[in-house]
């Protein structure tokens, strides 16, 4: 084996972050093995046979797991050239180097990874500086050969049935500058399109592998409406029964409301939106560019067009008081979103990674402790210790709820009881209806969540 590409976690999706560079490297003549350690064991023999090892670190959890893996990889393959690539690689380069990486790349990495391989194939030891690459690449169709089959990954749950789900992207990066977003420090307001023919070829291959639903993982699907609409039109024409979901900012749901009928007509059944909070002060700090009133409008628009909402939140921040959290819970019920919010979303705590634009705020600078190289964040404590206690208890309750398959309305009621116990009794919704489940993916975790205990306990090599 010449090249080993590793993904530790990609939100339950078959990792595009391996399939895309694998296509480039194989085209250049490399023998590539892809290993997704979330579903497939990584052996010392795999590492020992590799001259080039690439580790995808697109998110916080993946990077934490990569840090644990790197010393084992270095011991098993002392002469291999190890590259960490993805959003979290260049921002955590010093720490990843200490753990065993030779180079850290962010942005559009396929061409550079191929150049590194060609250097190695010529018998030379690469010497590549850590860098963020934003050049425009003519991306080719991903090569998913050798990856675990789609039935090993998250499925769509809709109408009481499960369907195999594929994953692709039409764009990378984002033109927005939300302060808490990990995309911003790398792309800084830029986004890059993936050629339509490449996206459609990837969808076609995944449908052939059994996919009946596609997740478009763009940070914001409507960053470039003129690019994505022809893609979903062509996809629907070729696969009229194929459904899909997309991620769209609240701001864009409202601005492009006139596009929602076409999205629904072409198979869109679910929109993921990073609502983040229902408190306008927190939304302003995050620079989300929407308000609570905008959330209400966006919920109405999606409902009118029979598109389910999968809302995500950063439920615990330094500015989330007991009253703010109570208002958040009441707001979920008032908006009819109990079935639209996964239990984990009620417990997510703000992560402040290296490069976060939140560090521009004076009160955040005064609040955070020195950077923690193990947790990969600037730690902070809530001014009200009970809120930190509540957050830990909510996450434990969420993990238990997901494991036992509890309904979301039942979890919501238990969450209200938990709040009463930890932060004192408070107002409750008049009723909590046991509504029909909305379409959702079976993987409920989130890119900006801390790793679970089971993930951190994983052993490599």
UniProtKB/TrEMBL annotation:
NCBIfam families (alphabetical): rSAM_CUAEP
Source organism: Chloroflexus aurantiacus (strain ATCC 29366 / DSM 635 / J-10-fl)
Query: Which UniProt keywords are given for this protein, alphabetically ordered?
Result: Iron, Iron-sulfur, Metal-binding, S-adenosyl-L-methionine
One GO MF annotation is: catalytic activity
SUPFAM superfamilies assigned:
Radical SAM enzymes (SSF102114)
Against CDD domains, the record matches this protein to: Radical_SAM
What's the protein here called?
Radical SAM domain protein
Signal peptide residues on this chain, from the entry's feature table: none
Determine the domain of life of the protein's source: Bacteria
- Chain ranges of the Elp3/MiaA/NifB-like radical SAM core domain: 164-382
